[in-house]
Design a protein that fits this description.
The chain is mainly α. It contains three helices and no strands. The two termini are about 15 Å apart.
Length: about 80
Amino acid sequence: MNDTIVPPVSVDAGQCRQRLTALAEHLPQHLADEGIGMVPMMLDRCDPDDESAAVIGKLRSDHGHVVVDAAEIVVMIQEKRQ
């Protein structure tokens, strides 16, 4: 099924490990850091009249989906490598 979305390509093993590490480790940490630091700061600094809370709520929702999607992509890549 996945081959119908993206045709198979040859990828260097080192590059593949690097991308898996980015998806599995660096991306979730980056998003967590944003949630801990950037998002609360934005809520504190934004004017209530500018409806930023709705935008930030969407951002938080999107981040949740990204973490789940990235984990699924990692599993698919690992299965293809075996």
